[in-house]
Design brief:
With about 400 residues, the protein is an alpha/beta fold. It has helices at about 80-95, 115, 135-145, 155-165, 185-195, 205-210, 230-235, 270-280, 290-315, 325-335, 370, 385-395, and strands at about 5, 20-25, 35, 45-50, 55-60, 60-65, 105-110, 125-130, 145-150, 170-175, 200-205, 225, 240-250, 255-260, 320, 345, 355, 360-365, 375-380, 400-405, 410. The strands form four sheets. The protein has an eight-stranded mixed beta sheet, covered by helices on one side. The chain has a seven-stranded mixed beta sheet with strand order 9-8-7-10-11-14-13, with helices on both faces. A four-stranded antiparallel beta sheet has the order 2-4-5-12. The longest helix is centred in the last third of the chain and has 26 residues, at about 290-315.
Length: about 400
């Protein structure tokens, strides 16, 4: 059988072998949907590690790069929350960096072109390029009129992109930077393709917000790295780059957009100094917050299962909403499967009629909720709870909601 997963033996940033496994999530499937109910694919054990040299947090097992090219089911356009966020971010970036006609914006891991689509403005002829190896997603990017370079981004392809499309003004990498296994080669490619006027912008959940909100469910195989500012600031220096600004948002339970450029020998800004000091004060350069996080996650699992057990004891029905990777970690870690939940629903048509991995739950269109009228809906995609509840109210769904994080709660 072809090997599809590798163990993390050294830190992705500093290459130290001082890795501390602070969280064991147990058996978490590699992908979130299967064609068969009784899949025989081996489910590996996922541990989360922190490097005790540079304090970068990372997954202990990593799928090999070409694994996601096949049957990739996540499409950005299915979430109005994400679409609205990207629209806002695009406007901010256009204004902040005064983008002009013919400026090139590249989105690495650009998916179906949702983010890049917002850079296409009537009064501005900004060039857009989606760099992504997946087929189904980039097909929709092309339909939006976005150029596509269908490949992984690395040192070799960065030179090819630069030769073919020119030097970018902006490189975006939204929730994709955390999926990179060889960070050194990837950032070498960034350093090669940009000039002094270019800006590399990545956005991912911010580690301190992840811990504060107990968001262990953002830790899955497609997310290899979990970002604080301190380890990344040191890492970028190796490539002659620097973090010069950041912007926080509430998307995905608390994210940070980080701005990187070629180092220009100026002193570090007060804003960056402040966030670095903030992380030190929170002791994220010690094992203390990581041990606490692990203990709190275990308590959360017990509390959520107590709620589910009480609901089932009263002969009530439960459906789950959100066949996401977050939901995959949540349900499998908490051992919530077909014995406790009736079925799963999701708006993503590419996931419907498949089975949610590790749970034997079949995935349906949310319209099934109208016919079945479950007593409770577990919001496995809880980070989009406002959007989900609003859409279900329009369908006149009267179910109660179980919100798993940050604290298991029933919403009447």
């Amino acid at each position: 059988m072809k090997k599809i997963i590798a163990n993390t033996k050294k830190c992705r940033l500093c290459e130290s072998k001082k890795l501390y496994a602070f969280l064991n999530l147990g058996n978490i499937p590699i992908k979130n949907a299967e064609k068969e109910k009784n899949s025989k694919i081996k489910i590996p054990n996922l541990k989360i590690l922190v490097c005790k040299n540079c304090w970068h947090v990372q997954a202990g097992k990593v799928p090999l790069p070409d694994f996601y090219i096949r049957d990739y089911t996540y499409h950005t356009r299915f979430s109005k929350t994400v679409d609205d966020h990207f629209n806002k971010r695009a406007s901010e970036i256009i204004r902040k960096f005064n983008l002009k006609n013919n400026d090139l914006v590249i989105d690495i891991g650009g998916n179906d072109g949702t983010f890049l689509g917002h850079f296409k403005r009537p009064k501005k002829k900004i060039r857009t390029l989606c760099v992504d190896p997946t087929f189904k997603t980039t097909f929709y990017a092309k339909k939006r009129g976005i150029e596509v370079f269908r490949s992984f981004f690395n040192l070799k392809t960065s030179a090819e992109i630069k030769r073919k499309f020119g030097i970018p003004k902006i490189i975006l990498c939204t929730n994709t930077f955390g999926a990179i296994n060889d960070m050194n080669e990837f950032v070498s490619g960034i350093a090669k393709i940009i000039d002094e006027k270019s800006v590399f912008i990545y956005e991912n959940p911010y580690l301190i917000d992840t811990f504060k909100g107990l968001q262990f469910d953002t830790m899955y195989y497609e997310h290899i790295s979990y970002f604080a500012v301190s380890p990344m600031a040191k890492f970028f220096e190796k490539f002659g780059l620097e973090i010069f600004d950041y912007s926080k948002s509430k998307i995905h339970g608390g994210s940070m957009m980080v701005f990187v450029r070629k180092k220009n020998n100026k002193k570090i800004s007060k804003k960056i100094k402040s966030i670095l000091n903030f992380e030190i004060k929170r002791k994220f350069n010690t094992t203390k917050p990581y041990k606490k996080f692990s203990d709190d996650v275990e308590k959360m699992r017990k509390n959520l299962n107590l709620i589910i057990k009480k609901v089932k004891k009263n002969n009530k029905t439960i459906a789950a909403y959100g066949a996401s990777d977050r939901g995959l970690t949540l349900l499998n870690y908490c051992k919530l499967n077909f014995k406790k939940i009736e079925y799963m629903v999701d708006v993503n048509t590419f996931k419907q009629n498949l089975y949610f991995s590790g749970t034997k739950l079949k995935i349906y269109d949310p319209k099934k909720l109208i016919k079945e009228e479950p007593d409770y809906i577990l919001l496995s995609a809880w980070n989009f709870k406002d959007e989900i509840i609003k859409s279900l109210k329009k369908l006149k769904i009267k179910s109660k909601y179980i919100l798993p994080l940050p604290k298991p709660t029933i919403i009447e």
